[in-house]
TrEMBL record:
It comes from the Bacteria. The keyword Transcription applies. This is CRP/FNR family transcriptional regulator, anaerobic regulatory protein. Pfam families: cNMP_binding, HTH_Crp_2. It comes from Parafilimonas terrae. The keyword Ligase does not apply. Residues 150-221 form the HTH crp-type domain. Keywords: DNA-binding, Transcription, Transcription regulation.
Length: 229
């Protein structure tokens, strides 16, 4: 992990700079630290002490939690512009989850004390942060509902649709993120073997197309039918 202060923050991407007062930006530049990680590196891991919060500037990562027998449950995926590490800013002092880079990433790190001062000084930032937490809560409630009520085929279909909505598509129409089948299976709440079988069925039905680890949705309406509860 490399860290240094710099002045290349893009207010169109950085959540903090975007919603803070212009007069507060010089303070952000003074107190932030730029963190760069290569693919597979961990921004933080479950059990680490919480010292601050991260704002993802470039790249993509996954947030996950340890499970039984060394397995992991993928909780969410993140891209540039997202807030990372906020789950550790409650009353606890350690991170309850880990964050691992899916590709080379760049993030801004803000220490906890300065982050709290930023909330107090910047009402628009505080409002947008509250809305972010609200969206996170709604997403979490939806996942709990889906895991309880949706069959595995529906959860896998819904996961493909979510990934395309989250990351968009590249020039060839493939979802613009490269994920292992294990990570997709984990997020969908199933085992690799079940995901592999159902994804192959979708491919044979020409609903999706795989090219290596890349996936393209050919018939989103079919996936939407499967994902209806």
């Amino acid at each position: 992990m490399n860290g240094r202060n710099n002045n290349d923050c893009n207010p169109e991407i950085c959540f903090l700079c975007k919603y803070c007062l212009k007069e507060w930006v010089p303070s952000i530049e003074q107190f932030k630290t730029t963190v760069r990680l290569k693919k597979g590196g961990q921004l933080f891991k479950e059990g680490d002490a919480v010292n601050g919060i991260f704002f993802l500037k470039q790249g993509k990562l996954k947030v996950h939690k340890s499970w039984e027998e060394g397995r992991q449950m993928v909780i969410r995926f993140a891209k540039a512009g997202d807030v990372i590490g906020h789950r550790g800013l409650g009353s606890g002092t350690i991170y309850p989850v880990s964050a691992t880079a899916l590709e080379n990433i760049t993030a801004c790190f803000i220490e906890r004390s300065f982050f709290l001062r930023s909330i107090q000084v910047n009402p628009e930032f505080a409002l947008q942060l509250m809305m972010f937490y609200s969206d996170e809560l709604q997403d979490a409630e939806k996942r709990i509902r889906d895991l309880a009520l949706m069959d595995v085929r529906g959860r896998i279909a819904d996961t493909f649709l979510m990934l395309q909505k989250k990351f968009g598509t590249d020039e060839e129409g493939y979802i613009d993120v490269v994920l292992t089948r294990q990570d997709i299976a984990s997020f969908a709440g199933t085992i690799y073997e079940t995901f592999f079988r159902i994804a192959n069925e979708f491919a044979k039905q020409k609903i999706i197309r795989y090219s290596g680890k890349r996936v393209k949705i050919l018939k989103p309406s079919k996936l939407e039918v499967y994902s209806k509860i």
